[in-house]
Amino acid sequence: MRNSAVAGLMLVTLTLAGCGGTLSGAGPYKGDIESKSQSAAYDLVDINANTIAPFMRPAAKPTKAKITSPLAQSVRLMGGDVINVLITDNAPEGSGLFAPLSTGGTQLKVRIDDKGMISLPYVGHQFVAGMTLIQVEDMIRQKLKGVTTDVQAHVDLVGDLSGSVLVAGAVKAPGRFSTLQGPLTLLDAVNQAGGPVMEPHLVNVTVRNGAQASTYNYEDILAGNNFVLKPNSEVILDRARQRFVAMGAVGEPGLHDLPAQNTSLLDALGSVGGLKESNANPQGVFVFRMGESDTKPTVMRIDMRDPAAIFFARQVVIKPDDTIYVTNAAVYEWQKIIGPVVQTLVLGRALQAN
């Protein structure tokens, strides 16, 4: 009876061991990836000195030596702006409508309403949205011409919704920043917002100014592609899609950020703890990459047993959305099969002893 039970246990164990789909694993076996039957689904490329060229990471771009020289942009007023209007009247003492320049003139602080209008004494309600400061000064002088003898007007922007820049997204202190102290470059605006919350290569910067929208990588901006922002621009920082997946016999499988722009395969493996020495197959390191719309996906294979492969892995670039997959060693797969058999034999021997 006991012998029958032991035989039954061994039969079940051997049946499960012989069924590849039942054994645990993170992905396909090395032989399945290399099988010719899969060639219609993707191109399998052995990375060596003759094939590495299309997969090499590009040379680092040199940092630009230019310095951005901010030039003042023409500010157009809009609803919400606050302007300071100074009107002086040089008429004979006591006969002017406004204070003379010698006493500081007449100061009027005015907010432009949501319809773009302002209201001033003897000038009335006037539409100023879209006008420059000089145009507002000319308008005031024209409206007061004939009302008083010798009037002068000067307009300053003291609350510049129209000239400010909005910075939002992945920054430490988002907000709206004034250009009253001078024009803002993109780096100025981001620095005033506390800087990005992630490493530069993981940050994309979108700049909108009402006429167009452009997106840049923040690391490129730091390399010298800085520029002056137009008034009333919006600057949005968000996470760049710079991720890859590590699977199989690596130290830390999962979804990871690329550690740098133009990350090499060796750097990517290092960032996930490298190959697991206990069960990794160094000859079964693969990189899966989706193809373009008109090309097949590519699977790169690299034999890390080859000393030259260390240099190749340093040159191969890992792109966002790549998958690095390290297969298990054959002896490890065999241990998964033989382990349950040995355990069953030990259990059977224990049962017979009883």
TrEMBL record:
<feature type="domain" description="SLBB">
    <location>
        <begin position="242"/>
        <end position="326"/>
    </location>
</feature>
<dbReference type="InterPro" id="IPR019554">
    <property type="entry name" value="Soluble_ligand-bd"/>
</dbReference>
<dbReference type="InterPro" id="IPR049712">
    <property type="entry name" value="Poly_export"/>
</dbReference>
<keyword id="KW-0626">Porin</keyword>
<dbReference type="InterPro" id="IPR054765">
    <property type="entry name" value="SLBB_dom"/>
</dbReference>
<feature type="domain" description="Polysaccharide export protein N-terminal">
    <location>
        <begin position="72"/>
        <end position="157"/>
    </location>
</feature>
<keyword id="KW-1134">Transmembrane beta strand</keyword>
<dbReference type="InterPro" id="IPR003715">
    <property type="entry name" value="Poly_export_N"/>
</dbReference>
<keyword id="KW-0564">Palmitate</keyword>
<keyword id="KW-0813">Transport</keyword>
<feature type="signal peptide">
    <location>
        <begin position="1"/>
        <end position="17"/>
    </location>
</feature>
<feature type="domain" description="Soluble ligand binding">
    <location>
        <begin position="166"/>
        <end position="210"/>
    </location>
</feature>
<dbReference type="Pfam" id="PF22461">
    <property type="entry name" value="SLBB_2"/>
</dbReference>
<keyword id="KW-0812">Transmembrane</keyword>
<comment type="similarity">
    <text>Belongs to the BexD/CtrA/VexA family.</text>
</comment>
<keyword id="KW-0625">Polysaccharide transport</keyword>
<keyword id="KW-0472">Membrane</keyword>
<keyword id="KW-0998">Cell outer membrane</keyword>
<protein>
    <submittedName>
        <fullName>Polysaccharide biosynthesis/export family protein</fullName>
    </submittedName>
</protein>
<keyword id="KW-0406">Ion transport</keyword>
<keyword id="KW-0762">Sugar transport</keyword>
<keyword id="KW-0449">Lipoprotein</keyword>
<dbReference type="Pfam" id="PF02563">
    <property type="entry name" value="Poly_export"/>
</dbReference>
<dbReference type="Pfam" id="PF10531">
    <property type="entry name" value="SLBB"/>
</dbReference>
<keyword id="KW-0732">Signal</keyword>
